[in-house]
Amino acid sequence: MYHFIDSLRVNHQVIAISTRGHGKSELGNQPHTYQLKANDAANVLNAVTKDSATVIGFSDGGYTGYMLASLYPSKVKKLVVIGAGERHPGDQPNAITVKQALELDKPFWDQQLALMPDPKRLQELFTRVQEEFNTKLVADEKLFSTIKCPVLVMVGDHDNFITVEHAEYASKFIPKGQLSVIPGAGHAAFLEKWAVAWPTVNYFLKH
Fold it and tell me: What pTM did the predictor assign?
């Protein structure tokens, strides 16, 4: 997320949160529900500021953002979600293995493993995240309709996890939802097409 951190820190206070099992955050022993992750994020926000915050979440963090905005509306001023939309058990699964992830971006994972309190639990992290995402996550009209803040739903038109239709569904049922489709981009649209994604996000934050 360094693109966002470096661009926003010029004029904003940036609170960068590593969810459980990421960065220096402990994996813990509880099931990794999105409500738990939203509670964690709310606790961090409450510890750092009394104000509401603009929240940016990618993929798994996007679903945490939806839940945070729903459960803690007073803490979320605006929400930017990338690579997260309508979701039900049985949809396209997250089946990436640790080996595949390491091969995709070895420098990133070397960095993560150096930060993790217990790097031997990396496989356990993958298992917990995938179990919640693949078998339990429901993101539908019932959830989206409870989100009252403005939300930008961003998706790459070649995202292999979330289709444009699933992202559009989310933006449709969020009362103040907006949709941004990044052409020629996959799941990590903001990384692949930063020159396109950043002006869109920046405009949303300012208006």
Answer: 0.95
